[in-house]
C-alpha cells in the first residue's frame, strides 16, 4: 500500500514540482548556512582581531609612556652637573659631594609610580638614594639587590629588570619593583649609573583589560612580567604559544584543548612583548547558533514541502476529482491536476528575478568604477581585490592591463570659464567620448580620482596592443580638443601583468603626466620614456629661492622677487627636477603666502582667491612663472603699504633697539620703555606683526649672535654668554641647548670639523622659535 501511494505521488507532475522546489530551497538554505559559517571564520583572521590589536597598542602606549617618562628623568640625571660632580669626586669627599644630588633625587621622586631613585658610583662603590641617602659602600645600603647586574648596566644603554624589594623596610616586604637603569658616561668610560625603581602594581594598574581576553607581558629573555598572580594557563603552555606565534602579529593556537585567537605587539621602548588571547568559542557562539538555526530552518522547509504535497493531493485536488467524475462518469479519474494554480507564483518569481538581474546589470559600470578608484588609491586589500575582480569583471582576462590618466590642462582657468553645471556636462561628455573611442578594441573602465582628470583601466580585446596605444591616445586628445574645445594631457603607465599591479601602473602614469610642467599642454607621455630622465632629475628641489622670494615680499622688493622666480624657473629647466618634488615646494610657498596674507589682514591676490593644488599641478612652467610674478607684484604692493603703518615702524624700532643692546641684560620692560609703552601693548603689536613673541625674537637674536662668536672666535663660552646678554653661564648653556638642540661646546666642535652650523640658518626676517619656560 505504501509503495502504491509513493508511486502515485511521484507520478503527479504538481507533486514532483513541489518536491523539487522544497529540496532546492532546503539545499540553498543549507549551503548559505555553511558558507556563512565558513566566511565568518575567515573574517576573524582579518577583522575580529582588530579590537584586540588596538587594546594591545593602548596598553603598549601606557607602559611606554611610563617608562619613557622615567627614562627621561634617568637621562637628565646622567647629564646633571651635580650628579656628574659627585661621580667625579674622589672617595674622601664623596659624602660632601652627595648632598646636592640627594636634593635633586628627592625632588624627582614625587610621582606615585616611582618608588626610589639612586645614583651608583662605580669607582668607590658608593651610592646616593632618595630612599636612604648616601652610603660609602653599596653593600651597606639597606637595599642593594641591583648590585648583581651592574656588569649588564655597563654593557647596555638601557636596562629594565623585574625584582623583589629586599630592603629593611617591613612595609615594603615582597613588593614587586621594575628597575630602570641608565649608565653615566664620562670621557668614553662608564663611571656610574642612574637607577629608577618603579612600583610594579601602580604601573600595571593603568593597563586596560577586556573581559573576554587574557593579556600577558614578556621581556626580551622570555620571562613573564605580567600578570604575576592568578595565571589562567600553565607557564609551559604559554611557552608553546609564544614559540608558535613567533613574531607574527596574529595566529590561532590551542591551549588545553581549546582554540584561542592570539595577538601580539612589541614595545620599541622596553622591548617587551604584549600578548592577548581571546577564546574562539565565545567569538563563534553567535554564528554557530545562526548556522544551527538555518539548518533547522532547512528541515522545517522540507517538512512544510511534504505537508504541501499531502494537502495538494488530498485536499486541493478533491473538488477537481469530484467535478471530473460528475462530468465524465464513464472515465476513471486519474487524480492528476494541472499547473494553472502555479502560474501566478512562477510568473511572480520570474518577474522578480528579471528585475533584479536588470538592476545588477545597470549597477555594474558604477561598481567597476568604484573598484578602480579603490584600487589606484590602495584602499582595498589583496583578498578583497580578488573577490571583487571575480564578481565585477566576468568576461575579462586575468591580464595584462594598461593605465591612462587624461587631465584637463590649466584646470583652474577652465573652471573659471564655465558654471559648475556646464563643467559636469562637459566632463560627462568627455567620459562618453573616451569610452566610445576605446570600445572597439579595448575593454574599458573609467573613474575620476580628481576633479581635473579621468583614469582609465584598459585591456585589449585582441585588436590593439600597448605599442600603438600612444598613437590612439594622441588621436583621442585631438578629438576632445576638436569636439569639446578642451585641451588635455595624457599620461600612460607601463603594462600591469595582473590586476594587483594596476596601482603601480597608475602611479607611473601620474609621473609621466607630471612632465607637462616642462613639455607643455596637449601631449601624450609614456612612463617608459622617462626612466633616464627620472634618474637625472632625482635630486631634491632647492627651496632656498622660496625664502628669498618671501624676503623680497616682506621688504616690498618686487623686482628682486621676480628675479628669483625667473632664476628658479631657469634652473629647473636646466636640471629637470622631478615635477612632483617641484609641486610640493611650490604648494608650500603658496600656502605660506596665503597664511601671511591672512595673518596680516591683506587682500589675497586674484590667483590665490580660490586656491587648490590643482591650480599648479595642471600648469606648465611658463604659466607658473607668470602666476608667481603676478603674485609677487601684488603682494609687494600690499607689503609696501603696510611698511608705512605706525605698527610696522614701531616693530622695526623695537628690533633695532634689541640688536643694538644685544650684549646688555635687557628685558621686556626695558624694550617697552624704549618706546614709552606698556609691556602688554608692545607684546601684542609685536606678536601680530611678526608672528612671534618679543622674548622669542630676542632669544633668537642672542642665539644667532652666539653661533657667530662660537664659530668665528676663540672666546670662552662664559665670555660669549656675557657678550649676548647672559650674566650666568649655566643659563646661557641651557637656553642655547633648548634653541639649537646642542650644547655650545659641541656646536663649536662640530663647526670646526664640518665648517657649518649645527642648525640651518633662519629664513630672512624670521624670529619664530619655541616658547621658553
UniProtKB/TrEMBL annotation:
Whose protein is this, by species? Paenibacillus auburnensis
Q: Which InterPro entries match?
A: CdaR_GGDEF, Homeodomain-like_sf, HTH_AraC, HTH_AraC-typ_CS, Tscrpt_reg_AraC-type_HTH
Fetch the SUPFAM superfamilies from UniProt.
Homeodomain-like (SSF46689)
> Where are the bilayer-spanning segments?
17-37, 293-312
Q: Which UniProt keywords apply?
A: DNA-binding, Membrane, Transcription, Transcription regulation, Transmembrane, Transmembrane helix
Q: Does the keyword Heme apply?
A: no
Any Pfam family: GGDEF_2
Query: CDD domains of this UniProt entry?
Result: PDC1_HK_sensor
Domain named HTH araC/xylS-type: residues: 652-750
What residue spans carry the region label Disordered? 744-773
User: What is the protein's given name?
Assistant: HTH-type transcriptional activator RhaR
Amino acid at each position: 500500500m505504501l509503495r502504491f501511494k509513493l508511486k502515485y505521488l511521484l507520478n503527479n507532475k504538481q507533486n514532483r514540482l513541489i518536491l523539487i522546489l522544497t529540496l532546492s530551497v532546503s539545499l540553498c538554505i543549507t549551503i548559505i548556512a555553511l558558507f556563512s559559517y565558513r566566511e565568518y571564520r575567515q573574517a576573524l583572521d582579518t577583522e575580529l582581531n582588530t579590537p584586540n590589536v588596538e587594546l594591545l597598542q593602548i596598553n603598549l602606549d601606557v607602559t611606554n609612556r611610563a617608562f619613557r617618562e622615567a627614562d627621561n628623568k634617568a637621562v637628565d640625571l646622567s647629564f646633571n652637573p651635580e650628579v656628574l660632580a659627585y661621580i667625579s669626586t674622589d672617595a674622601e669627599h664623596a659624602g660632601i659631594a652627595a648632598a646636592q644630588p640627594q636634593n635633586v633625587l628627592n625632588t624627582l621622586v614625587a610621582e606615585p609610580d616611582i618608588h626610589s631613585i639612586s645614583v651608583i658610583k662605580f669607582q668607590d662603590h658608593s651610592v646616593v638614594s632618595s630612599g636612604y641617602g648616601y652610603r660609602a659602600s653599596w653593600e651597606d645600603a639597606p637595599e642593594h639587590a641591583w648590585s648583581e647586574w651592574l656588569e649588564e648596566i655597563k654593557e647596555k644603554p638601557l636596562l629594565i629588570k623585574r625584582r623583589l624589594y629586599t630592603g629593611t623596610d617591613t612595609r615594603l616586604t615582597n613588593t614587586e619593583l621594575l628597575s630602570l637603569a641608565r649608565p653615566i658616561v664620562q670621557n668614553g668610560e662608564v663611571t656610574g649609573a642612574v637607577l629608577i625603581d618603579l612600583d610594579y602594581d601602580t604601573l600595571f594598574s593603568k593597563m586596560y583589560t577586556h573581559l573576554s581576553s587574557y593579556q600577558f607581558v614578556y621581556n626580551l629573555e622570555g620571562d613573564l612580567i605580567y600578570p604575576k598572580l592568578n595565571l589562567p594557563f600553565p607557564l609551559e603552555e604559554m611557552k608553546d604559544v609564544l614559540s608558535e606565534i613567533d613574531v607574527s602579529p596574529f595566529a590561532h593556537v590551542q591551549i588545553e584543548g581549546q582554540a584561542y585567537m592570539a595577538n601580539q605587539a612589541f614595545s620599541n621602548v622596553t622591548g617587551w612583548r604584549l600578548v592577548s588571547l581571546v577564546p574562539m568559542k565565545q567569538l563563534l557562539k553567535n554564528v554557530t547558533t545562526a548556522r544551527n538555526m538555518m539548518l533547522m530552518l532547512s528541515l522545517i522547509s522540507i517538512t512544510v514541502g511534504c505537508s504541501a504535497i499531502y494537502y495538494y493531493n488530498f485536499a486541493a485536488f478533491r473538488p477537481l476529482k469530484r467535478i471530473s467524475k460528475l462530468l465524465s462518469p464513464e472515465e476513471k479519474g486519474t487524480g492528476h491536476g494541472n499547473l494553472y494554480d502555479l502560474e501566478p507564483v512562477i510568473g511572480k518569481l520570474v518577474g522578480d528575478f528579471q528585475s533584479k538581474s536588470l538592476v545588477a546589470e545597470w549597477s555594474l559600470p558604477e561598481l567597476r568604477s568604484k573598484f578602480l578608484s579603490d584600487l589606484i588609491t590602495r584602499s582595498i586589500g589583496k583578498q578583497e581585490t580578488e573577490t571583487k575582480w571575480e564578481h565585477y569583471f566576468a568576461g575579462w582576462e586575468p591580464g595584462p592591463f594598461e593605465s591612462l590618466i587624461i587631465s584637463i590642462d590649466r584646470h583652474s582657468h577652465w573652471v573659471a570659464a564655465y558654471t559648475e553645471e556646464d563643467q559636469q556636462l562637459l566632463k560627462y561628455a568627455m567620459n562618453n567620448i573616451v569610452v566610445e573611442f576605446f570600445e572597439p578594441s579595448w575593454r574599458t573602465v573609467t573613474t575620476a580620482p580628481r576633479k581635473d582628470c579621468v583614469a582609465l583601466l584598459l585591456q585589449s580585446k585582441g585588436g590593439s596592443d600597448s605599442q600603438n596605444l600612444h598613437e590612439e591616445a594622441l588621436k583621442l586628445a585631438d578629438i576632445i580638443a576638436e569636439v569639446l574645445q578642451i585641451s588635455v594631457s595624457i599620461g600612460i603607465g607601463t603594462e600591469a601583468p595582473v590586476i594587483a599591479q594596476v596601482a603601480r601602473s597608475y602611479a607611473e602614469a601620474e609621473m609621466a603626466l607630471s612632465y607637462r610642467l616642462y613639455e607643455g599642454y596637449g601631449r601624450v607621455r609614456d612612463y617608459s620614456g622617462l626612466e633616464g630622465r627620472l634618474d637625472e632629475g632625482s635630486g631634491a628641489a632647492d627651496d632656498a629661492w622660496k625664502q628669498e622670494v618671501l624676503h623680497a615680499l616682506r621688504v616690498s622688493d618686487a623686482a628682486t622677487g621676480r628675479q628669483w622666480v625667473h632664476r628658479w624657473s631657469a634652473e629647473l629647466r636646466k636640471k629637470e627636477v622631478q615635477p612632483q618634488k617641484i609641486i610640493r615646494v611650490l604648494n608650500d610657498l603658496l600656502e605660506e603666502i596665503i597664511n601671511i596674507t591672512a595673518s596680516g589682514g591683506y587682500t589675497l591676490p586674484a590667483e590665490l582667491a580660490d586656491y587648490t593644488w590643482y591650480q599648479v599641478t595642471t600648469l606648465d612652467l611658463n604659466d607658473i612663472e607668470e602666476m608667481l610674478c603676478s603674485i609677487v607684484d601684488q603682494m609687494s604692493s600690499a607689503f609696501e603699504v603696510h611698511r608705512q603703518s605706525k605698527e610696522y615702524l614701531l616693530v622695526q624700532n623695537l628690533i633695532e633697539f634689541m640688536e643694538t643692546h644685544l650684549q646688555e641684560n635687557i628685558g621686556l620692560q626695558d624694550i617697552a620703555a624704549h618706546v614709552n609703552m606698556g609691556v602688554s601693548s608692545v607684546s601684542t603689536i609685536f606678536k601680530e606683526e611678526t608672528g612671534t613673541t618679543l622674548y622669542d625674537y630676542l632669544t633668537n637674536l642672542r642665539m644667532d649672535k652666539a653661533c657667530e662668536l662660537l664659530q668665528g672666535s676663540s672666546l670662552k663660552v662664559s665670555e660669549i654668554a656675557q657678550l649676548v646678554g647672559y650674566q650666568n653661564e649655566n643659563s646661557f648653556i641651557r637656553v642655547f641647548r633648548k634653541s639649537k638642540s646642542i650644547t655650545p661646546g659641541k656646536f663649536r666642535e662640530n663647526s670646526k670639523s664640518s665648517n657649518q652650523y649645527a642648525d640651518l640658518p633662519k629664513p630672512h626676517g624670521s624670529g619664530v622659535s619655541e616658547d621658553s619656560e
